[in-house]
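COURSE: Structural Biology Practicum
ASSIGNMENT: Worksheet 4, Part C
STUDENT ID: 0417
INSTRUCTIONS: Below are two proteins. For each, the amino acid sequence is given first, followed by its structure token string. Answer the questions at the end about the second protein only.

PROTEIN I
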Amino acid sequence: MLLANSAKDLSYNELNESIYCIAKSNCEFSELWLLNKSELYKRCCRWLNRCEDQVDEAMSLIAEKAFLNFLSERKINNFSAWLYRLAYNVCIDVHRDTKRQRELVKQVQDLPNTFFFSSNQSETQDDIYSDMEFVDNIMLGMSKLPDTQRLAIKYRTLYGMEYQEIAERLNISTANVRKKVQLARSQLRKYVLDS
């Protein structure tokens, strides 16, 4: 990302030098990571009570954050100490997230009659029938519209086309399309209210 943003401003030699520096940094980071990985894993296991899922998540987050910080211009004097402090902070974050998730699950389990992720009321048969009847009335009303009005309202509401696009398709002006859509809506409204 750093490379992509600044590539326009760099000459060919500067770009090659940047790529070389990133590759060199990647190799340096890999060496330092491998030297500290086993001790880091042990500490994460201890901090996260040997929960494998949490440890794996923490290790991947630590690797990502450490690498991104390693690439930055910031000077790191003692890499091991810095890495262990980062690991501790990440483990605390993972632990807190897991605790929040457990509390949410417990809250949902304690209130089985409450719906947290859906509406509290389901549709009745009358509501469903009423909706189907409404759609049938609109479809019947649309069939009674003149062709250009029917196509204009269909393109605008069902397909979400812009007025200009509809005008090109029907070979009429945009003002005419707007008027036809307006007329179609008023006729449909009248038809549905009368039936």
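PROTEIN II
(use this one for the questions)
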Amino acid sequence: MANVTTGKVWTLDTAAGLVTSNPVYIKGVLVTWKVASAGAVLLSEIEEGGDVAAGMTILDAVSTGATSAATNELSQWFPIDEHFNGLRKVTMTDISKLAIYTK
């Protein structure tokens, strides 16, 4: 699956790399972790001038691994409400779904 960056809700695949080099306003990020896995996600901003290798951290989150009995706790909402120069996925492991809500 490739990144889907059209519309107001973007869904991202697991491959690290550039998501967009265009300015974006991010309302929040919805992460759905995989069952019984310790997942991690790290999203960063692209610095002004387009340097995709460096930038401020937007979201750095990890899960400790939920059991199937705790499936109602597998999705987490991270409010961001901020404008960024661009978006890069640094790490995304053991995640069922990652959705970026834009304005």
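ANSWER KEY EXCERPT:
Q1: The CA atoms of residues 45 and 88 lie 6 Å apart.
Q2: The first strand starts at residue 9 and ends at 11.
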